[in-house]
Amino acid sequence: MAPRLQLEKDAWRWAEMVKPEDITHEHIELAYRIAVLACKRGTCRRNCKGNPNCLVGIGEQSWLGEIDENAFHNIDDPNSERRDKNTFVGLTNLGATCYVNTFLQVWFHNLELRRALYRFQNSRAEGHNTDSDYEPRTICEHLQYLFALLQNSNRRYIDPSGLVKALGLDTGQQQDAQEFSKLFLSLLEDTLSKQKDPNLQNVIQQQFCGQFSYVTVCNQCGRESPLPSRFYELELNIQGHRNLTECVTEFLKEEKLEGDNRYYCESCQSKQNATRRIKLQSLPRTLNFQLMRFVFDRQSSHKKKLNTFISFPEVLDMGPFLEGKEEECTYELSAVLIHRGVSAYSGHYIAHVRDAHTNDWYKFNDEEIEKMEGKKLQLGIEEDIAETAKSQTRKPKCSKGYHCSRNAYMLVYKRQTEEIDQTETIFEVPAFLQKLVDQDNKKFEEWYNEMADMRKQSVDKGKAKHEEVKELYELLPTEDGLSYEFVPLEWLKKWLDDSTAIKEIDNSQFLCSHGKLHVLLLEI
What we know:
Number of helices: 13
Number of strands: 20
CATH topology of the largest domain: Cathepsin B, Chain A
Shape: elongated
Enzyme class: hydrolase
Helix content: 25-40%
Subcellular location: Cytoplasm; Nucleus
Number of domains: 2
Main location: cytoplasm
GO molecular function, one term: cysteine-type deubiquitinase activity
EC number: 3.4.19.12
CATH class of the largest domain: Alpha Beta
CATH superfamily of the largest domain: Cysteine proteinases
């Protein structure tokens, strides 16, 4: 393209030699630069103001050549919302509900609990008319429906807001995960205990509830005073310990009651020195260890997180810790709940859970689910988060069959059985619940088809516009002997971008006092 000044000279070279009455149509076209050749693509950095035939910089790069179909729409691929084959379903994080999602996934993978909940009598669900949406009311109804969706939904993830709302949880504030677990199981136990089916009445006790006694022994007379207590989980101090065995040993260790802390003995009828310790009497099928990572710091008067590395085995023998009774005490690791972050008041919760059917490990991170390679637990980057640069310590080496973590806050072990009946790990959703799941799947498929159609229509429209613009772009430069029109550059840009959203051509601002196109505007 010739320099702008050269274009201006060429346009007005005749003006000094031609009288006004001798001006011809040819002179006018020279002034308006009609015959100046169009700039070739790639020769100009921007649109040339001195050349009305320059078509560079008006958005042509978006329309010439091959274009990705995604450029024709802003609709996400609905396939990204569909559950992949042979994968699990995630849960939406409603703001600060990741701790709820981790427990829900762990409980869903407790097959005995899931099977029991499917037997929960739910007359509302059984008599529901599929012409309207099903809305659970009680906690058990919500959990029952949620588990059915997690098992057979076509969605990649589902929304647990109904259950969260029924529990009265604040979605914007992270609650104490340990307290939530205990209170939820207690609430579930109370509800199920009122069922007529004895298997339902006792499922929470059988699965999660163990028993120990605080046993106090008088040093003077030797009298033992047991105080029975139930537990859903064993709360273990991790400070100063390296592995799970040390933590359990400290939990059960003997404590001396002396001085101001002496024990009042009913036999001696006076305060006496004594010893007190915890005796484990029965263990549940699912044994939960709560690692006390969040402790009160007296100096700051706030909670703080302990980043202590604790190792734990894949197979745990609880026999040495159990008092008196002979029962199966070997447990297998089935889940590890992780807290990511350096603060006790914030952070993110995820869960590593072993599939009871395949023994594969999965990482559940709200909507995202990742299958671990092989059959081994892989904690991955969850262990790369340290409290401060000064507190970073090397991860200790773990023996074969052990894992090590400074972010695990709950370990879940399942009682090991001699023979595993694989048929027990596969069971269908009851018909009355499957009907509700099918109803939700139908809604999803309708949404999917609607999004897919909208996406296709946008692509088809974009392809048609693409071809139209390509053809028009080739016709835009003027040719000798053919009629032509001037259009504003900004209007042409908008038309190329979206021809349906622009107004009619308005050249009024470019006209001179005689109602003609102002020739000097070509030089601005």
